[in-house]
Amino acid sequence: MADLPVPGDSGRVAGMFGRVAGHYDLLNHLLSAGLDIAWRRAMVRGLLAPGLPSGPVLDLAAGTLDVSLLLSRQGRRDIVAVDPCLPMLARGRSKIPAGPGAAIHPVLGDGLALPLPDGALAGATIAFGIRNIRPRPAAFAELARVVKPGGRLMVLEFGTGKRRLWGGAYNFYLRNVLPRIGKLVSGDDEAYRYLAATIREFPDEATLATEMRRAGFRDVTYRAMTGGIVFLHAGVKAP
């Protein structure tokens, strides 16, 4: 069995996800029993809560643009969708409704070097992607650079596999079920073995909140969803 990519090896990680781009949406819904839709909606509601400054918003690790499309349906008219994997963005672009006034602007890019000026954004989201950007403190610092003071950052991510959860059922699912279903549907289990490995290695929610604060976000909060399978973090860019 081949070694898995190292988080932060953006070229190999992008290539791995590019191979499953055609099955990515189906597998997201199947492997989460459809809960991923509710998780993303909760993140979008949090970003767009009253008090968000004016300006464009960023969907980082945009993948097939599910978050961008949710933002667009809520009336956002200037969404920058950044991802390092071209096949994922191409898959997402095919989902954008035709017509004038397109709100979503897909951009091939790296979360450590965003193609945006300082303080350009009213807010940013990153759903199930911060695991893949290393070092994380540099990724949070880059997000703090492009979000204007008073702007919001929302981070949706799986909880760590180190915590006790439902008597070990979560880790059994990560190790044994998730990669097998991924291979059955997509014919390639590498992305789903990688997903399981990065979840098990991920820091806990309090550590992630501390990293956000150190990068320049204040009023950082987090909440568990679905019993701690995922956590939604929120922070406000400090003045």
Descriptive terms for the model:
alpha/beta, 9 helices, 7-stranded mixed beta sheet, 239 residues, 7 strands
Order of helices and strands: HHHEHEHEEHEHHHEE
The count of β-strands is: 7
Question: Could you give the distance between the termini?
Answer: 49 Å
**Low-pLDDT stretches:** none
Question: What's the gist of this structure?
Answer:
The chain is 41% helix and 21% strand. The protein has helices at 10-19, 24-31, 35-47, 66-73, 86-93, 136-146, 169-186, 190-201, 205-215; strands at residues 57-60, 79-83, 104-108, 121-127, 147-158, 217-225, 230-237. The longest helix is centred in the last third of the chain and has 18 residues, at 169-186.
How are the elements arranged and paired?
Blueprint: H1 10-19, H2 24-31, H3 35-47, E1 57-60, H4 66-73, E2 79-83, H5 86-93, E3 104-108, E4 121-127, H6 136-146, E5 147-158, H7 169-186, H8 190-201, H9 205-215, E6 217-225, E7 230-237
Parallel strand pairs: 1-2, 1-4, 2-3, 4-5
Antiparallel strand pairs: 5-7, 6-7
Helix pairs in contact: 6-9, 7-8
Can you describe what's shown?
The structure is a single chain. The chain is an alpha/beta fold and 239 residues long. It contains 9 helices and 7 strands; from the N terminus they run αααβαβαββαβαααββ. It has helices at residues 10-19, 24-31, 35-47, 66-73, 86-93, 136-146, 169-186, 190-201, 205-215; strands spanning 57-60, 79-83, 104-108, 121-127, 147-158, 217-225, 230-237. A 7-stranded mixed sheet has the order 3-2-1-4-5-7-6, sandwiched between helices. Strand 6 and strand 7 (230-237) form a beta hairpin. Helix 7 (169-186) runs antiparallel to helix 8. The longest helix is centred in the C-terminal third of the chain and has 18 residues, at 169-186. It starts with 9 loop residues before the first helix and ends with a strand.
